[in-house]
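Meet our chain:
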Amino acid sequence: MQTIETKSGRLIRLPTEEEEAAIQRGIDSDPDNPEWTDEMFKESVPFSSLPEGLQTKLRSGRGPNKKPTKVQTAIRFDPEVLAALKSTGRGWQTRVNDVMKEWVAQHVPG
């Protein structure tokens, strides 16, 4: 297994030859999202050079969600609690939400 280290110190595992071949087969089999050619790269432009109206339209949001939208709120944690939660990595807020749902189901009538 070959890995590379990023500037921030993260280790990234590179795909094996077999995994890379499977990835390439997937790319080749998707007619709606082909691998970019050199010509496509030459014709591409930075997002900032698009007309402002198009930039605004492309930035306008995520579109409809498949699941109900969560409500944004603010909550205060002790610093050590927040540090411990964040130390569990990506998805820590979703895990907190799941634990809170479980707690509500067990402790809140209704």
Notes: The chain has a mean pLDDT of 90.
